[in-house]
Amino acid sequence: MSQQETEEYYIWLLESFLNAFGKQPNVVVTDQDAAVGNAVQKVFTQSKHRLCMWHIGKKLTVYVSAEVIRESNFRKRMQNLIWNPCLDPHLFEDKWNSLVAEHKLEDNPWLKRMYSLRSRWIPAYFKDTPLSGFTRTTSRSESENYFFESFMSNTTNLVMFICKFDAAMDKQRSIQSASDFTSVSKLPPISTRLEFENQASRFYTHKMFGIFQKEVHDCVWSCSVVNCTSVYDHDSFLVLEQVMGEFGENKSVFFNVKSNNFRSHNRSQFQYQVTFHQSEDMFRCKCMVFEHFGFLCRHILSVMKAKFISEIPSKYFIRRWQKGVIRSQELEKTYSFGGDIGGCQGMIEDAYRVVADSVNMIAHDPDSMTLFLQWQKEIRNKIEANPPNKDSRTKDELIASMIGISKVDKITIRNPKNVKFKGCGTGGKRLQGKREISMNSSKKDGRTCTYCNKKIAPGEKHDRRNCPVRKEDERKNLVDTSEVDANPNIV
Protein backbone atom coordinates (compact mmCIF):
# COMPACT_ATOMS: atom_id res chain seq x y z
CA MET A 1 0.00 0.00 0.00
CA SER A 2 1.58 3.22 -1.16
CA GLN A 3 0.29 6.75 -1.53
CA GLN A 4 2.43 7.25 -4.64
CA GLU A 5 2.59 4.52 -7.26
CA THR A 6 6.05 5.48 -8.48
CA GLU A 7 8.77 3.59 -10.30
CA GLU A 8 10.72 3.20 -7.04
CA TYR A 9 7.71 1.62 -5.36
CA TYR A 10 7.17 -0.85 -8.20
CA ILE A 11 10.87 -1.77 -8.20
CA TRP A 12 10.65 -2.58 -4.49
CA LEU A 13 7.45 -4.58 -5.07
CA LEU A 14 8.91 -6.64 -7.94
CA GLU A 15 12.15 -7.26 -6.04
CA SER A 16 10.10 -8.52 -3.09
CA PHE A 17 8.20 -10.79 -5.48
CA LEU A 18 11.48 -12.08 -6.90
CA ASN A 19 12.89 -12.79 -3.44
CA ALA A 20 9.74 -14.70 -2.49
CA PHE A 21 9.53 -16.90 -5.62
CA GLY A 22 13.23 -17.21 -6.36
CA LYS A 23 12.98 -16.92 -10.15
CA GLN A 24 11.74 -14.48 -12.77
CA PRO A 25 8.43 -15.15 -14.55
CA ASN A 26 8.52 -16.09 -18.22
CA VAL A 27 6.02 -13.37 -19.21
CA VAL A 28 4.81 -10.20 -17.48
CA VAL A 29 1.55 -8.62 -18.72
CA THR A 30 0.83 -5.02 -17.64
CA ASP A 31 -0.98 -1.94 -18.85
CA GLN A 32 0.88 0.96 -20.47
CA ASP A 33 1.84 2.65 -17.21
CA ALA A 34 5.38 4.00 -17.66
CA ALA A 35 6.39 3.45 -14.03
CA VAL A 36 5.38 -0.23 -14.15
CA GLY A 37 7.08 -0.76 -17.51
CA ASN A 38 10.38 0.74 -16.35
CA ALA A 39 10.32 -1.32 -13.15
CA VAL A 40 9.69 -4.53 -15.08
CA GLN A 41 12.62 -3.85 -17.42
CA LYS A 42 14.98 -3.16 -14.50
CA VAL A 43 13.98 -6.07 -12.24
CA PHE A 44 12.75 -8.82 -14.60
CA THR A 45 15.60 -8.64 -17.10
CA GLN A 46 14.97 -12.20 -18.38
CA SER A 47 11.17 -11.93 -18.71
CA LYS A 48 9.13 -11.01 -21.76
CA HIS A 49 7.09 -7.86 -21.15
CA ARG A 50 3.71 -7.76 -22.89
CA LEU A 51 0.97 -5.11 -22.85
CA CYS A 52 -2.64 -5.80 -21.93
CA MET A 53 -4.72 -6.07 -25.12
CA TRP A 54 -7.94 -5.14 -23.33
CA HIS A 55 -6.58 -1.76 -22.20
CA ILE A 56 -5.43 -0.90 -25.70
CA GLY A 57 -8.61 -2.08 -27.42
CA LYS A 58 -10.73 -0.02 -25.05
CA LYS A 59 -8.93 3.18 -26.06
CA LEU A 60 -9.83 2.72 -29.71
CA THR A 61 -13.07 4.70 -29.37
CA VAL A 62 -11.24 7.50 -27.55
CA TYR A 63 -8.46 8.20 -30.06
CA VAL A 64 -10.33 7.43 -33.29
CA SER A 65 -12.95 9.94 -34.41
CA ALA A 66 -16.54 9.19 -33.43
CA GLU A 67 -17.63 9.59 -37.04
CA VAL A 68 -15.44 6.71 -38.20
CA ILE A 69 -16.59 4.51 -35.31
CA ARG A 70 -20.27 5.34 -35.81
CA GLU A 71 -20.56 5.26 -39.60
CA SER A 72 -18.40 2.25 -40.46
CA ASN A 73 -17.46 -1.21 -39.25
CA PHE A 74 -13.90 -0.06 -38.46
CA ARG A 75 -14.10 -0.95 -34.80
CA LYS A 76 -15.41 -4.47 -35.42
CA ARG A 77 -12.84 -5.17 -38.12
CA MET A 78 -10.00 -3.82 -35.97
CA GLN A 79 -11.06 -5.97 -33.00
CA ASN A 80 -11.25 -9.07 -35.21
CA LEU A 81 -7.78 -8.30 -36.53
CA ILE A 82 -6.28 -7.70 -33.09
CA TRP A 83 -7.73 -10.80 -31.44
CA ASN A 84 -7.04 -13.23 -34.30
CA PRO A 85 -4.45 -15.70 -32.92
CA CYS A 86 -3.91 -17.44 -36.27
CA LEU A 87 -2.35 -14.56 -38.22
CA ASP A 88 1.38 -14.36 -38.74
CA PRO A 89 3.21 -10.97 -38.43
CA HIS A 90 3.42 -10.27 -42.17
CA LEU A 91 -0.27 -10.88 -42.75
CA PHE A 92 -1.18 -8.80 -39.70
CA GLU A 93 0.87 -5.86 -40.94
CA ASP A 94 -0.70 -6.05 -44.40
CA LYS A 95 -4.23 -6.14 -43.01
CA TRP A 96 -3.53 -3.35 -40.48
CA ASN A 97 -2.11 -1.02 -43.11
CA SER A 98 -4.95 -1.83 -45.50
CA LEU A 99 -7.61 -1.18 -42.85
CA VAL A 100 -6.02 2.10 -41.70
CA ALA A 101 -5.62 3.33 -45.28
CA GLU A 102 -9.20 2.43 -46.16
CA HIS A 103 -10.51 4.77 -43.45
CA LYS A 104 -7.81 7.43 -44.07
CA LEU A 105 -6.30 7.17 -40.60
CA GLU A 106 -2.63 7.02 -41.63
CA ASP A 107 -1.89 10.25 -39.73
CA ASN A 108 -3.60 9.21 -36.49
CA PRO A 109 -0.83 9.55 -33.83
CA TRP A 110 -2.30 6.96 -31.46
CA LEU A 111 -2.63 4.30 -34.17
CA LYS A 112 0.94 5.04 -35.25
CA ARG A 113 2.20 4.54 -31.71
CA MET A 114 0.25 1.32 -31.22
CA TYR A 115 1.56 -0.01 -34.51
CA SER A 116 5.13 0.75 -33.44
CA LEU A 117 4.49 -1.29 -30.25
CA ARG A 118 2.75 -4.15 -32.09
CA SER A 119 5.33 -6.77 -31.11
CA ARG A 120 4.42 -6.24 -27.42
CA TRP A 121 0.65 -6.71 -27.59
CA ILE A 122 -0.43 -8.41 -30.84
CA PRO A 123 -0.68 -12.25 -30.45
CA ALA A 124 0.79 -12.80 -33.92
CA TYR A 125 4.20 -11.76 -32.56
CA PHE A 126 4.32 -14.13 -29.59
CA LYS A 127 2.28 -17.15 -30.62
CA ASP A 128 5.13 -19.39 -29.46
CA THR A 129 4.99 -17.94 -25.93
CA PRO A 130 2.92 -20.08 -23.51
CA LEU A 131 0.40 -17.71 -21.91
CA SER A 132 -2.62 -20.02 -21.36
CA GLY A 133 -4.83 -17.17 -22.56
CA PHE A 134 -3.38 -14.52 -20.21
CA THR A 135 -3.15 -11.78 -22.84
CA ARG A 136 -5.19 -9.28 -20.85
CA THR A 137 -4.91 -8.22 -17.23
CA THR A 138 -8.00 -6.18 -16.46
CA SER A 139 -10.65 -8.89 -16.74
CA ARG A 140 -8.85 -10.98 -14.13
CA SER A 141 -7.64 -8.23 -11.82
CA GLU A 142 -11.02 -6.47 -11.84
CA SER A 143 -12.83 -9.73 -11.03
CA GLU A 144 -10.49 -10.24 -8.07
CA ASN A 145 -11.05 -6.64 -6.97
CA TYR A 146 -14.82 -7.10 -7.16
CA PHE A 147 -14.59 -10.35 -5.19
CA PHE A 148 -12.56 -8.88 -2.31
CA GLU A 149 -14.53 -5.61 -2.26
CA SER A 150 -17.59 -7.64 -1.24
CA PHE A 151 -15.74 -8.48 1.99
CA MET A 152 -13.87 -5.26 2.80
CA SER A 153 -13.64 -1.54 2.00
CA ASN A 154 -11.01 1.22 2.06
CA THR A 155 -11.82 1.89 5.74
CA THR A 156 -10.95 -1.66 6.87
CA ASN A 157 -8.12 -1.67 9.40
CA LEU A 158 -5.38 -4.31 9.58
CA VAL A 159 -7.11 -6.53 12.14
CA MET A 160 -10.40 -6.57 10.24
CA PHE A 161 -8.52 -7.07 6.98
CA ILE A 162 -6.97 -10.30 8.25
CA CYS A 163 -10.34 -11.60 9.48
CA LYS A 164 -12.18 -10.68 6.27
CA PHE A 165 -9.37 -12.00 4.10
CA ASP A 166 -9.75 -15.37 5.83
CA ALA A 167 -13.48 -15.26 5.11
CA ALA A 168 -12.81 -14.46 1.44
CA MET A 169 -10.34 -17.33 1.15
CA ASP A 170 -12.83 -19.69 2.80
CA LYS A 171 -15.34 -18.81 0.09
CA GLN A 172 -12.78 -19.39 -2.66
CA ARG A 173 -11.83 -22.75 -1.12
CA SER A 174 -15.49 -23.72 -1.03
CA ILE A 175 -16.05 -22.77 -4.68
CA GLN A 176 -12.88 -24.61 -5.74
CA SER A 177 -13.82 -27.71 -3.75
CA ALA A 178 -17.31 -27.77 -5.28
CA SER A 179 -15.87 -27.42 -8.80
CA ASP A 180 -13.32 -30.17 -8.14
CA PHE A 181 -16.01 -32.48 -6.78
CA THR A 182 -18.18 -31.94 -9.88
CA SER A 183 -15.25 -32.55 -12.26
CA VAL A 184 -14.09 -35.71 -10.48
CA SER A 185 -17.48 -37.29 -9.76
CA LYS A 186 -19.21 -36.58 -13.10
CA LEU A 187 -18.13 -37.00 -16.70
CA PRO A 188 -19.29 -34.35 -19.21
CA PRO A 189 -21.40 -35.46 -22.20
CA ILE A 190 -19.51 -36.65 -25.30
CA SER A 191 -20.51 -35.27 -28.71
CA THR A 192 -18.59 -37.64 -31.02
CA ARG A 193 -17.36 -41.23 -31.14
CA LEU A 194 -13.72 -40.18 -31.25
CA GLU A 195 -11.72 -41.89 -28.53
CA PHE A 196 -9.47 -38.90 -27.88
CA GLU A 197 -12.54 -36.83 -26.90
CA ASN A 198 -13.43 -39.47 -24.32
CA GLN A 199 -9.79 -39.48 -23.17
CA ALA A 200 -9.83 -35.69 -22.76
CA SER A 201 -13.08 -35.82 -20.75
CA ARG A 202 -11.32 -37.97 -18.16
CA PHE A 203 -8.36 -35.60 -17.86
CA TYR A 204 -9.63 -32.02 -18.25
CA THR A 205 -11.78 -30.11 -15.81
CA HIS A 206 -15.34 -29.52 -16.98
CA LYS A 207 -14.66 -25.91 -17.98
CA MET A 208 -11.50 -26.75 -19.88
CA PHE A 209 -13.12 -29.72 -21.56
CA GLY A 210 -15.87 -27.42 -22.85
CA ILE A 211 -13.20 -25.35 -24.62
CA PHE A 212 -11.43 -28.43 -25.97
CA GLN A 213 -14.73 -30.00 -27.09
CA LYS A 214 -15.30 -27.04 -29.42
CA GLU A 215 -12.00 -27.91 -31.12
CA VAL A 216 -13.18 -31.51 -31.45
CA HIS A 217 -16.49 -30.37 -32.91
CA ASP A 218 -14.79 -28.11 -35.45
CA CYS A 219 -12.27 -30.81 -36.32
CA VAL A 220 -15.19 -33.05 -37.35
CA TRP A 221 -17.49 -30.56 -39.07
CA SER A 222 -15.22 -27.74 -40.29
CA CYS A 223 -11.83 -29.30 -41.10
CA SER A 224 -10.47 -31.91 -43.49
CA VAL A 225 -7.02 -33.07 -44.59
CA VAL A 226 -6.60 -32.31 -48.30
CA ASN A 227 -2.94 -33.12 -48.89
CA CYS A 228 -0.13 -35.14 -47.31
CA THR A 229 3.57 -34.95 -48.17
CA SER A 230 6.24 -37.22 -46.71
CA VAL A 231 9.53 -35.52 -45.97
CA TYR A 232 12.77 -36.99 -44.56
CA ASP A 233 11.73 -37.54 -40.94
CA HIS A 234 8.15 -36.28 -40.82
CA ASP A 235 4.85 -35.98 -42.67
CA SER A 236 3.41 -32.62 -43.72
CA PHE A 237 -0.37 -32.21 -43.94
CA LEU A 238 -2.45 -29.45 -45.45
CA VAL A 239 -5.66 -28.98 -43.42
CA LEU A 240 -8.56 -27.08 -44.92
CA GLU A 241 -10.96 -25.33 -42.55
CA GLN A 242 -14.16 -23.61 -43.61
CA VAL A 243 -15.14 -20.61 -41.52
CA MET A 244 -18.39 -18.69 -41.88
CA GLY A 245 -18.63 -14.98 -41.16
CA GLU A 246 -21.13 -13.35 -38.83
CA PHE A 247 -23.64 -12.68 -41.65
CA GLY A 248 -23.01 -15.92 -43.55
CA GLU A 249 -20.16 -14.62 -45.70
CA ASN A 250 -17.02 -16.74 -45.99
CA LYS A 251 -13.66 -15.54 -44.73
CA SER A 252 -10.28 -17.01 -45.60
CA VAL A 253 -6.54 -17.02 -45.09
CA PHE A 254 -4.58 -19.46 -47.26
CA PHE A 255 -1.22 -21.01 -46.57
CA ASN A 256 1.16 -20.59 -49.49
CA VAL A 257 3.30 -23.72 -49.72
CA LYS A 258 5.88 -22.15 -52.04
CA SER A 259 6.54 -19.04 -49.94
CA ASN A 260 5.98 -20.90 -46.65
CA ASN A 261 3.77 -18.06 -45.49
CA PHE A 262 0.15 -17.01 -45.14
CA ARG A 263 -1.61 -14.98 -47.79
CA SER A 264 -5.13 -13.66 -47.99
CA HIS A 265 -7.65 -14.71 -50.67
CA ASN A 266 -11.26 -13.96 -51.21
CA ARG A 267 -12.29 -17.60 -50.85
CA SER A 268 -14.29 -19.71 -48.45
CA GLN A 269 -11.69 -21.60 -46.40
CA PHE A 270 -8.62 -21.37 -44.20
CA GLN A 271 -5.68 -23.69 -44.79
CA TYR A 272 -3.05 -24.66 -42.22
CA GLN A 273 0.09 -26.76 -42.35
CA VAL A 274 0.52 -29.52 -39.75
CA THR A 275 3.73 -31.53 -39.34
CA PHE A 276 3.81 -34.95 -37.64
CA HIS A 277 6.98 -36.72 -36.42
CA GLN A 278 5.74 -40.27 -35.93
CA SER A 279 8.91 -41.53 -34.20
CA GLU A 280 8.48 -38.91 -31.47
CA ASP A 281 4.67 -38.64 -31.45
CA MET A 282 5.09 -34.91 -32.03
CA PHE A 283 2.64 -32.59 -33.79
CA ARG A 284 3.09 -28.97 -34.76
CA CYS A 285 0.59 -26.64 -36.43
CA LYS A 286 1.18 -23.22 -37.97
CA CYS A 287 -1.61 -21.73 -35.84
CA MET A 288 0.44 -22.62 -32.69
CA VAL A 289 -2.64 -22.87 -30.49
CA PHE A 290 -1.01 -25.54 -28.31
CA GLU A 291 2.13 -23.48 -27.76
CA HIS A 292 0.09 -20.41 -26.82
CA PHE A 293 -2.96 -21.82 -24.99
CA GLY A 294 -1.94 -25.33 -23.89
CA PHE A 295 -4.39 -27.60 -25.74
CA LEU A 296 -4.39 -29.23 -29.18
CA CYS A 297 -6.01 -27.31 -32.03
CA ARG A 298 -8.68 -28.59 -34.43
CA HIS A 299 -6.12 -28.92 -37.23
CA ILE A 300 -3.94 -31.40 -35.34
CA LEU A 301 -7.05 -33.27 -34.22
CA SER A 302 -8.08 -33.52 -37.89
CA VAL A 303 -4.73 -35.13 -38.74
CA MET A 304 -5.12 -37.55 -35.83
CA LYS A 305 -8.60 -38.48 -37.06
CA ALA A 306 -7.32 -38.98 -40.63
CA LYS A 307 -4.49 -41.24 -39.44
CA PHE A 308 -6.79 -43.14 -37.04
CA ILE A 309 -4.76 -42.10 -33.98
CA SER A 310 -7.15 -42.81 -31.11
CA GLU A 311 -5.24 -41.35 -28.16
CA ILE A 312 -3.57 -38.00 -27.56
CA PRO A 313 0.08 -38.35 -26.43
CA SER A 314 0.39 -37.64 -22.72
CA LYS A 315 2.83 -34.74 -23.28
CA TYR A 316 -0.02 -32.73 -24.82
CA PHE A 317 -2.04 -32.84 -21.60
CA ILE A 318 -0.88 -29.86 -19.57
CA ARG A 319 -1.07 -30.36 -15.81
CA ARG A 320 -2.59 -26.89 -15.41
CA TRP A 321 -5.91 -28.11 -16.90
CA GLN A 322 -6.03 -31.44 -15.04
CA LYS A 323 -8.80 -32.51 -12.67
CA GLY A 324 -7.82 -32.31 -9.03
CA VAL A 325 -4.55 -30.53 -9.76
CA ILE A 326 -4.97 -28.71 -6.43
CA ARG A 327 -4.56 -31.20 -3.62
CA SER A 328 -7.48 -31.45 -1.23
CA GLN A 329 -5.16 -30.75 1.73
CA GLU A 330 -4.33 -27.35 0.24
CA LEU A 331 -8.02 -26.40 0.17
CA GLU A 332 -8.61 -27.28 3.80
CA LYS A 333 -8.57 -24.55 6.41
CA THR A 334 -5.87 -24.90 9.04
CA TYR A 335 -7.01 -24.42 12.64
CA SER A 336 -4.60 -23.19 15.28
CA PHE A 337 -5.21 -23.03 19.02
CA GLY A 338 -2.37 -21.58 21.04
CA GLY A 339 0.35 -23.18 18.98
CA ASP A 340 0.97 -26.92 18.96
CA ILE A 341 -0.42 -27.72 22.40
CA GLY A 342 1.33 -30.87 23.58
CA GLY A 343 1.75 -32.06 19.97
CA CYS A 344 -2.05 -32.05 19.38
CA GLN A 345 -2.21 -29.63 16.45
CA GLY A 346 -2.39 -32.39 13.85
CA MET A 347 -5.08 -34.24 15.83
CA ILE A 348 -7.11 -31.03 16.13
CA GLU A 349 -7.13 -30.64 12.36
CA ASP A 350 -8.04 -34.33 11.93
CA ALA A 351 -10.93 -33.95 14.39
CA TYR A 352 -12.39 -31.01 12.46
CA ARG A 353 -11.95 -32.91 9.19
CA VAL A 354 -13.69 -36.04 10.53
CA VAL A 355 -16.65 -34.05 11.85
CA ALA A 356 -16.99 -32.03 8.63
CA ASP A 357 -16.82 -35.16 6.45
CA SER A 358 -19.38 -36.96 8.62
CA VAL A 359 -21.83 -34.04 8.43
CA ASN A 360 -21.45 -33.85 4.64
CA MET A 361 -22.22 -37.55 4.26
CA ILE A 362 -25.45 -37.45 6.30
CA ALA A 363 -26.55 -33.88 5.61
CA HIS A 364 -29.72 -35.01 3.76
CA ASP A 365 -30.77 -37.67 6.28
CA PRO A 366 -32.61 -36.17 9.30
CA ASP A 367 -32.53 -39.44 11.31
CA SER A 368 -28.78 -39.84 10.87
CA MET A 369 -28.19 -36.20 11.74
CA THR A 370 -30.27 -36.54 14.91
CA LEU A 371 -28.29 -39.62 15.97
CA PHE A 372 -24.96 -37.99 15.13
CA LEU A 373 -25.85 -34.87 17.10
CA GLN A 374 -26.83 -37.03 20.08
CA TRP A 375 -23.44 -38.77 20.01
CA GLN A 376 -21.62 -35.46 19.90
CA LYS A 377 -23.55 -34.16 22.93
CA GLU A 378 -22.74 -37.33 24.86
CA ILE A 379 -19.03 -36.89 24.11
CA ARG A 380 -19.18 -33.25 25.22
CA ASN A 381 -20.96 -34.20 28.47
CA LYS A 382 -18.26 -36.78 29.26
CA ILE A 383 -15.52 -34.19 28.67
CA GLU A 384 -17.28 -31.64 30.87
CA ALA A 385 -17.68 -34.25 33.64
CA ASN A 386 -13.94 -34.98 33.65
CA PRO A 387 -12.24 -31.90 32.19
CA PRO A 388 -8.50 -32.03 31.39
CA ASN A 389 -5.98 -29.74 33.06
CA LYS A 390 -6.33 -26.17 31.86
CA ASP A 391 -3.50 -24.42 30.08
CA SER A 392 -1.55 -22.41 32.63
CA ARG A 393 -0.31 -19.84 30.12
CA THR A 394 -1.58 -16.29 30.18
CA LYS A 395 -3.62 -14.71 27.40
CA ASP A 396 -0.59 -12.80 26.05
CA GLU A 397 1.46 -16.00 26.00
CA LEU A 398 -1.28 -17.84 24.09
CA ILE A 399 -1.53 -15.06 21.52
CA ALA A 400 2.27 -14.98 21.17
CA SER A 401 2.32 -18.74 20.50
CA MET A 402 -0.40 -18.38 17.86
CA ILE A 403 1.18 -15.56 15.86
CA GLY A 404 4.81 -16.51 16.50
CA ILE A 405 6.01 -13.25 18.12
CA SER A 406 5.91 -11.82 21.62
CA LYS A 407 4.07 -8.70 22.65
CA VAL A 408 6.15 -5.57 22.06
CA ASP A 409 6.43 -2.65 24.46
CA LYS A 410 6.16 0.03 21.76
CA ILE A 411 3.85 -0.13 18.75
CA THR A 412 5.63 0.95 15.57
CA ILE A 413 3.22 -0.47 12.95
CA ARG A 414 -0.11 1.29 12.62
CA ASN A 415 -3.05 1.08 10.25
CA PRO A 416 -2.09 2.61 6.88
CA LYS A 417 -3.64 5.82 5.69
CA ASN A 418 -6.30 5.70 3.03
CA VAL A 419 -4.50 5.89 -0.30
CA LYS A 420 -5.50 7.15 -3.71
CA PHE A 421 -4.93 4.45 -6.26
CA LYS A 422 -3.90 5.12 -9.83
CA GLY A 423 -6.81 6.60 -11.74
CA CYS A 424 -8.51 8.19 -8.71
CA GLY A 425 -9.14 11.89 -8.23
CA THR A 426 -9.98 14.03 -5.24
CA GLY A 427 -12.47 12.71 -2.75
CA GLY A 428 -11.82 9.12 -3.81
CA LYS A 429 -13.73 9.61 -7.06
CA ARG A 430 -12.49 7.84 -10.14
CA LEU A 431 -11.09 9.93 -12.98
CA GLN A 432 -13.20 9.70 -16.12
CA GLY A 433 -11.89 9.42 -19.65
CA LYS A 434 -12.87 11.74 -22.51
CA ARG A 435 -15.34 9.26 -23.93
CA GLU A 436 -17.06 8.69 -20.58
CA ILE A 437 -17.32 12.43 -19.87
CA SER A 438 -18.84 13.01 -23.30
CA MET A 439 -21.38 10.22 -22.82
CA ASN A 440 -22.39 11.49 -19.37
CA SER A 441 -22.77 15.05 -20.66
CA SER A 442 -25.03 13.89 -23.47
CA LYS A 443 -27.34 12.20 -20.96
CA LYS A 444 -28.01 15.43 -19.04
CA ASP A 445 -31.19 17.29 -19.90
CA GLY A 446 -29.52 20.69 -19.61
CA ARG A 447 -31.20 24.06 -19.01
CA THR A 448 -34.06 25.58 -20.97
CA CYS A 449 -34.56 29.29 -21.57
CA THR A 450 -37.87 30.27 -19.96
CA TYR A 451 -38.46 32.88 -22.65
CA CYS A 452 -37.84 31.11 -25.96
CA ASN A 453 -37.97 27.53 -24.58
CA LYS A 454 -34.71 26.71 -26.33
CA LYS A 455 -32.53 23.88 -24.96
CA ILE A 456 -29.27 25.43 -23.77
CA ALA A 457 -26.07 23.47 -24.53
CA PRO A 458 -23.48 23.01 -21.72
CA GLY A 459 -21.26 26.08 -21.51
CA GLU A 460 -23.56 28.25 -23.64
CA LYS A 461 -24.28 31.71 -22.15
CA HIS A 462 -27.99 31.91 -22.71
CA ASP A 463 -30.76 32.65 -20.20
CA ARG A 464 -33.96 34.73 -20.05
CA ARG A 465 -32.05 37.93 -19.29
CA ASN A 466 -29.75 37.82 -22.36
CA CYS A 467 -32.02 35.77 -24.65
CA PRO A 468 -31.51 36.95 -28.28
CA VAL A 469 -35.19 36.43 -29.06
CA ARG A 470 -36.19 38.59 -26.07
CA LYS A 471 -33.80 41.35 -27.12
CA GLU A 472 -35.27 41.30 -30.61
CA ASP A 473 -38.77 41.56 -29.16
CA GLU A 474 -37.67 44.47 -26.96
CA ARG A 475 -36.54 46.34 -30.00
CA LYS A 476 -40.00 45.79 -31.42
CA ASN A 477 -41.57 46.92 -28.05
CA LEU A 478 -43.28 43.59 -27.60
CA VAL A 479 -41.98 42.88 -24.08
CA ASP A 480 -42.49 44.68 -20.79
CA THR A 481 -39.02 44.58 -19.17
CA SER A 482 -40.18 45.84 -15.77
CA GLU A 483 -41.28 42.37 -14.69
CA VAL A 484 -37.86 40.85 -15.35
CA ASP A 485 -35.92 43.77 -13.82
CA ALA A 486 -38.05 43.66 -10.68
CA ASN A 487 -37.54 39.92 -10.20
CA PRO A 488 -33.86 38.99 -10.74
CA ASN A 489 -34.58 35.33 -9.85
CA ILE A 490 -36.35 34.77 -13.17
CA VAL A 491 -34.05 32.82 -15.52
Question: Secondary-structure blueprint of this entry?
Answer:
Layout: H1 7-21, E1 27-30, H2 34-43, E2 48-51, H3 53-58, H4 60-63, H5 66-71, H6 74-82, H7 89-102, H8 109-116, H9 138-149, H10 158-185, H11 195-203, H12 206-221, E3 223-230, E4 235-242, E5 254-256, E6 261-263, E7 269-277, E8 282-285, H13 289-293, H14 298-306, H15 345-361, H16 366-385, H17 395-403, H18 434-443, E9 447-448, E10 455-456, H19 468-475, H20 482-486
Parallel strand pairs: 1-2
Antiparallel strand pairs: 3-4, 4-7, 5-6, 7-8, 9-10
Helix pairs in contact: 1-2, 6-7, 11-12, 12-14
What does this structure look like?
With 491 residues, the protein is α+β, with helices and mostly antiparallel strands. It folds into three domains: 7-127, no CATH class; 128-333, no CATH class; 426-486, no CATH class. It has helices at residues 7-21, 34-43, 53-58, 60-63, 66-71, 74-82, 89-102, 109-116, 138-149, 158-185, 195-203, 206-221, 289-293, 298-306, 345-361, 366-385, 395-403, 434-443, 468-475, 482-486, and strands spanning 27-30, 48-51, 223-230, 235-242, 254-256, 261-263, 269-277, 282-285, 447-448, 455-456. A hairpin with a 4-residue loop joins strand 3 and strand 4 (235-242).
Number of domains: 3
> What level of helicity do the residues show?
40-55%
Low-confidence stretches: 246-268, 487-491
Count of DSSP helices?
20
What Rg is obtained from the alpha carbons, in whole angstroms? Answer: 33 Å
What is the overall pLDDT average? 79
Q: What would you call the structural class?
A: alpha+beta
Key words describing this protein structure:
491 residues, alpha+beta, 3 domains, 4-stranded antiparallel β-sheet, two-stranded parallel sheet
